[in-house]
């Protein structure tokens, strides 16, 4: 799985012969060489070592299991299976035969489309830390020691978890003891999950908790370096929070909002600290998705941007599922919760009514007390282990929502191929991505590729949303959306940027002239 190994782990696995402190490395190597020369230590070149190999029969069983796991975790990737093939060749026929097999198979995938996609993601990720007129003017990131998080819900607790995992001292604020206890318990559960998955030693669990302090007021905010607000998506509430933060936090403290829908300029409108207000949008669940979206206001100082970029750098070390997404849209909504999804939807409808599709289905489900995974009923049914299964009753809810909306089922939609489902879901995402570029919200198309891979779980091996779209072609995407717009409404209407690029047969990722980006 291309997992980097630290020296201690490599030593245990036998990939490293010995570990020495940096200042003793050369002396230790000399000592080894002398002992080999004097035949006091065996000299076995790595290529001939086989003392760690299982007997052939057991080795083949292990490899068979590895193939099954690779196909389950990444069904669309060929190169994982080729890696296993090369290993098997080496086990059966010797290391030289295995290396020759590896070289041959490497040439097969070197010029493949998957390779180009993965290379694009790598290059795009490297480019995210470079922002013109921000990272090239000599600013040095300031030290951030203590961070406060407002709100201990799903997002707030996830943000606090990722901060703790990166060794930051965290203050979690809630409005009452009940909510505070629930938030701390979520953080404990997140950390325990890391222990269970082998990502954190058991002995580090208690140490991690010492970095967390729960509070009910702002008195402990007087020496914090950064505050991340993660309360519900309500403009007056957020404005009041930022007014309070301005009163209690020190002058150097960065005031950040995790909002995903509200204009940051609006949130900080009533404050005087416009230069240190910024968007710091984590993706859910924050301790799993390695992405921090930094959104500047019209007055955010370059120093604040540089500080948050450094913070982010430290963090980031069925048909739809077949396409490669971790889960489909309905399963995702169940996981997030209908309440959060509905609140976000209201903001979108208020801000971008012509770009949203308003469905009656969510309201119909909420009226019947179905709110997602938390209530064990959403679009799916959930057992005690939170395993999802289809719910036959969904048909009646769908029919009721159609009746409310006055929609007649389209026979053509009832027999869509997987490819059509993918395109109807993702072409509007491409369309919105084009708007983001055109409006100067994002600096470059490669940033949207990284946002889609790390924030939405878009398949890395497809190169990111814009790279994938360019492989299909702007003309093809625009043509399909124009057809759907005539049948299903303006939700599918191509934006001006997409239409212009399609008319010229131009790449969607080609640079555009724009003002300073906000992302």
Q: What does this protein structure show overall?
A:
- By secondary structure, the protein is an alpha/beta fold.
- The protein has helices at residues 7-13, 25-37, 56-73, 79-93, 95-110, 113-127, 154-165, 177-196, 203-209, 235-248, 264-267, 302-315, 319-323, 329-336, 338-351, 361-367, 394-405, 418-438, 445-455, 465-472, 474-488, 496-504, and strands at 146-150, 169-173, 212-215, 226-229, 254-257, 277-282, 292-296, 380-382, 388-390.
- The strands form two sheets. The chain has a seven-stranded mixed sheet with strand order 3-2-1-4-5-6-7, with helices on both faces. It has a two-stranded antiparallel ribbon with strand order 8-9.
Task: Looking at this protein, list some descriptive labels.
519 residues; alpha/beta
- Shape verdict: globular
- % residues in beta strands: 5-15%
Uncertain spans: none
Radius of gyration: 26 Å
Query: What is the strand arrangement across the widest sheet?
Result: 3-2-1-4-5-6-7
Q: How much helicity do the residues have?
A: 40-55%
Residue-averaged pLDDT:
89
Please provide the count of β strands.
9
Largest sheet: 7 strands, mixed
Counting H and I runs of at least 4 residues, what is the number of helices? 22
Assign the structural class, choosing from mainly alpha, mainly beta, alpha/beta, alpha+beta, or little secondary structure. alpha/beta
End-to-end separation in angstroms reads 31 Å
